[in-house]
Specification:
By secondary structure, this protein is α+β, with helices and mostly antiparallel strands. The chain has 2 domains: 134 residues, 2-Layer Sandwich (Fructose-1,6-Bisphosphatase, Chain A, domain 1), CATH 3.30.540.10; 112 residues, D-Maltodextrin-Binding Protein, domain 2. The chain is built from 7 helices and 14 strands. A 7-stranded mixed sheet has the order 4-3-5-6-7-8-9, sandwiched between helices. A 5-stranded mixed sheet has the order 11-10-12-14-13, sandwiched between helices. Strand 8 and strand 9 form a beta hairpin. Helix 1 packs antiparallel against helix 2 and helix 5 runs parallel beside helix 6. The longest helix is centred in the N-terminal third of the chain and has 22 residues. The relative contact order is 0.14.
Length: 266
C-alpha cells in the first residue's frame, strides 16, 4: 500500500468536497433533524459524502468505507477501512457559523495510519501518515508547542451525540475544566479542534465518548505533531476504531502539559 498516493487521493477528495461545501453554504442548506439529540443533517452533508465515497472507492475498490451518514460501504472485512466525515460542524453551518471541516482517515486493521483534515473557509489542509509527521498543504511540518500560561490552559471539549444532557460524568468533568482553564471551547467541529491543537492554537482537548468518525483523522495529525493522547484515567488510549464509546474518552495535549490536565481530571 502506497500511503503517499493514498494521502494524495484523500487530499484531493477532501479539497473537492470543501469546494462543494463552500459554494453550497451560500444557498439553501436543506436542514433536517437527525436522531433524537437535537443534531441536524443537511443536503450538503450528503452531497459531500457522495463525492468523497465515490473518489475513494474509485481509487480503492477493494477497500471498505465507513461514512458518517451512510454507514459501511464497499468491501467489508478487509485490511483497509476509510473513515469519512463529509461535514464536521454541520450544526455550525446550519446557523451560519463558518467553522467546519472535512475529514478523511485510512485505517489498517482498525488502526489509523493516514489522516487528512481540510478547512474550506481558510483553504487550509493538514495531513499525516503514521510515523512520518504531520504537514500543511505546502509541506511545512507541524509541531505542537508547549506554552504554559499563568491563567490556565485554553482547552476544547468534545462529546458524542448519544451522551445525555444530564450525564453526571460530563457535568463533573466540564465543571472542573471551567474552573481550571482559561477558556473551554465547544466548537461543534472536533476535527477543527484537533487541527488547532496540532498548530498550537489551543493547549489541549478533552473528549468524552467521542464519535468514531470524528476522531482518527484529527487525532493522528495531532499525534504526529507531537501531541500525546491518554485515557481519562491516565492509561493508554485505545486507537482501534472497533472500540466502544467508552474507549473514546480521552485527554490530549503536549506531553509536558498532559500531567497537569490528568491531575485535574482525577
Amino acid at each position: 500500500m502506497d500511503l503517499d498516493h493514498a494521502r494524495a487521493v484523500a487530499v484531493e477528495a477532501a479539497e473537492a468536497a470543501g469546494s462543494l461545501l463552500l459554494e453550497g453554504t451560500r444557498g439553501a442548506l436543506g436542514v433536517r433533524p437527525k436522531g433524537g439529540s437535537g443534531d441536524v443533517v443537511t443536503d450538503l452533508d450528503l452531497a459531500s459524502e457522495k463525492l468523497l465515497v465515490e473518489r475513494i472507492l474509485t481509487a480503492y475498490p477493494s477497500h471498505a468505507v465507513i461514512a458518517e451518514e451512510s454507514g459501511l460501504l464497499g468491501a467489508s472485512g478487509g485490511e483497509w477501512t476509510w473513515l469519512v466525515d463529509p461535514l464536521d460542524g454541520t450544526n455550525n453551518v446550519a446557523i451560519g457559523l463558518p467553522a467546519y471541516v472535512v475529514g478523511v482517515a485510512l485505517c489498517r486493521a482498525g488502526r489509523p495510519v493516514l489522516g487528512v483534515v481540510h478547512d474550506p473557509v481558510t483553504a487550509q489542509t493538514w495531513s499525516a501518515i503514521r510515523g512520518c509527521g504531520a504537514v500543511t498543504a505546502s509541506g511545512a511540518r507541524l509541531a505542537a508547542p508547549y506554552r504554559p500560561s499563568p491563567h490556565g490552559p485554553l482547552l476544547a471539549w468534545t462529546q458524542g451525540y448519544a451522551v445525555a444532557r444530564d450525564d453526571a460524568t460530563v457535568r463533573a468533568l466540564k465543571g472542573t475544566l471551567e474552573l481550571a482553564a482559561r477558556r473551554v471551547l465547544q466548537l461543534w467541529a472536533p476535527l477543527l479542534s484537533w487541527a488547532m491543537l496540532a498548530r498550537g492554537d489551543i493547549d489541549g482537548i478533552v473528549g468524552y465518548r467521542a464519535e468514531s468518525v470524528d476522531l482518527p483523522a484529527g487525532a493522528l495529525i495531532a499525534q504526529e505533531a507531537g501531541v500525546e493522547i491518554r485515557a481519562l484515567d491516565g492509561g493508554a488510549f485505545e486507537e482501534n476504531i472497533d472500540g466502544t464509546a467508552e474507549d473514546r474518552s480521552f485527554v490530549a495535549a503536549h506531553p509536558r502539559a498532559l500531567p497537569h490536565l490528568l491531575d485535574l481530571l482525577r
